[in-house]
Amino acid sequence: MQSLSSFMNTIRFNFLYIDKYSFGRTWTYPESAIPYNMLRYIIDGSAEFVVDGETVIVRKGQVSYIPEGCWLSCKALEDTFAFYSIRFTTSVFYEGANFLREYYNFPLVMDVGEGIEPYFGDIYKWVRTDKKSKSFHVRGALDTLIASLIDILNSDEPDDVKAEINGLEYNLEQIRKRVKKSTVQTDPRIQTVIDYIMLNPTEEYTSDKLSGMAEVAETTFRRLFKEATGKTATEFIRQVRLTTAARLLLVSNDPVNCIAHDVGFEDANHFTRVFRQAFGMTPGRYRKMSQE
Questions:
Q1: What Gene3D superfamilies would the database entry show (predicted)?
Q2: Which strands form 37-44's sheet, in the order they lie side by side?
Q3: Most buried of 13, 32, 45, 87 (most Cβ within 10 A)?
Q4: Which CATH class, in words, describes the domain spanning 188-289?
Q5: Predicted model pTM
């Protein structure tokens, strides 16, 4: 059985976008399907969020966790309502599972206090720099933010280490029931290929090239890769490219067809079709949501 440590080591949070918003009392957000995860830190004011039919009131100093795939509507309740909003996806290895809620019991609203605001501010600052190290700072800051929220949620965790481990194992079994994944640790040869694809999603890949990178026969590579990711290499590469495209749609004004080409799709119409299948909406609608 896959160990807890190896399970945790395969988790990836893919940053998409962050912005700071300020609205008046008349602000509303019509009910829409959300194709990514969101963490919203409330800077000032209060609002009503309705997530999959559940109504919650969010206030200054709170964080709202809005999971991928839910239906969301919002309306401001005060003259000023301001918040940070971070958008991200969970690694492709856990498609179909609400990881943060299933594993760490993330609620829709967390009372975190103003001490958590600097974490959002750091990410907001780094995405606006031109430093070569930007992507590493943003990635690290997002991981640190999520880790800090986990610490806050588990501040009253039991002192008994065995009880804590048993609780983690129980939660891990819950995740296993929801998510298809290998029962063995990822082969380091396959992990090398996975990491390379994540860093170079727009390269052209063939079965021969991928198996050569792993230094195994093509049939062996296909089997090991499917065991490690639950997907074929083609499916995995396509999803990584779509995640890259989703981020570019949010952080740039490049035309959709240019983004499609940049991430490895020669046919913009084909890109639109597979994007809609993955995110439930067209690239244009996805981009528009970030401006609403």
A1: Homeodomain-like, Jelly Rolls
A2: 13-23, 81-90, 37-44, 62-66, 109-111
A3: 87
A4: mainly alpha
A5: 0.64
